[in-house]
Amino acid sequence: MEWLKQASLRKSLFIIIATSTTVGLILFFSMMSICMCHSPMSFRLIIKLVLPFIIAVGVPIIVAAVFYKLKLKIPLAQLSMGAKRIKENDLDFSIQFNSKDELGQLCESFESMRIELLKSNRELWQQMEERKRLNAAFAHELRNPVTVLKGSAAILQKGLEQGNLTVENASESISLIAQYSARIENYIQAMTSVQKLEELAFTPKAIKWSSLAQELKSSLSIIGLSGGKVIEFFNSDENRKSDEDRQINADSYMIYDVAENLVSNALRHSKDKVIVNMSCDDKKVAISVSDDGPGFSSAVLKKGAVPFLRDGNAEQGQHFGMGLYICHLLCEKHGGTLTLKNYAGGAKVTATFSLLQT
After folding, report:
1. CA-CA distance, 85 to 66, in Å (whole number)?
2. Where does residue 274 fall: left (phi above 0), alpha (psi -120 to 50 degrees), or beta otherwise?
3. Coil, strand or helix: which one is 355?
């Protein structure tokens, strides 16, 4: 019967009709010859009238039953099941009907459609997850620039109220306001042009290390003002005369973002003090941030910078996972690394950024 299952619907129907008709005719003439020889006249008359009717009705019924069972039952059931599952937004199934006839080809096309739908749904889900991650990252990244802007504005307002605001002591705050306004503008532009975090542009520019370190110290100090905790800064290069005018080729925005995120995390988890150590040589910039808090949990140390990682505390986890993940991504884009560890006094994170040759 397998060859019949593989035949086309037209050919199968023709074969079944021809076979059933032939069998019916053989039975009819066999019955007639038997009845004519051995039956009474009245019974022969009944056979002549009833047997043709039985064969005329029975053959189509047999043809329909055989054709439905062999050619229609399984593919129709498969297609009906598939349509129902798709209607319920369930694509985790497959159409299993291996036949070369028209319904087999239809089942094959249906299965191809299901696979493409599943692929499209997965791509759409992935895009939604990427967009969710991107939105969370931008929302996270905007906090620090807004904090610096508010802090700089507060410093200017305080100077005006106390009457001691001069061009000299206002210039640093105005410079920070201009710089961080430009960063927010860049964030908005990036948010409209990229679809995932990995697409963020790496744009290194030549800058003096001493200027970058000083601006970083100023902005981080403003971020620490609202926390009521001490931030100590150490720049291993600031006392070296030969390094005062060192030119580096780096993406300063990425370095600012990483440093601000690490300091914000450290301030949230520290008891009283955060230590920031900055250094620069011919190959890299390194920024280490230490705090006197409880340290990283074993889950964070094991999994590292994973987005949306929960650290046993929902509030901490919301900040922690996204911030560390962004830092990890930006360090990688800059050819560097991000390392986490605990020490006797708390937690320490070290970010490095490889420098391009100028």
Report:
1. 28
2. beta
3. coil
In this prediction the pTM is 0.56
Burial class of residue 143 in the structure, from the number of CB atoms within 10 Å of its CB (0-12 exposed, 13-18 middle, 19+ buried): middle
State the Cα–Cα distance between residues 132 and 134, nearest whole angstrom. Answer: 5
* Domains, in order of start, for the chain: 2-100 (no CATH), 125-354 (3.30.565.10)
Residue matched to tokens 């911030």: 323
DSSP bridge pairs for 288:
277, 350
Residue 110 CA to residue 117 CA, distance in Å, equals 10
DSSP-assigned letters across all residues of 166-217: -HHHHHHHHHHHHHHHHHHHHHHHHHHH-SSGGG-----EEEEHHHHHHHHH
Distance (Å, whole) CA 59 – CA 69: 15
Q: Give the mean pLDDT per block of 10 residues along the chain (358 residues).
A: 71 81 78 66 68 78 83 86 87 81 85 88 77 70 78 82 77 79 71 64 86 86 76 74 72 88 87 90 91 85 64 42 79 91 89 83
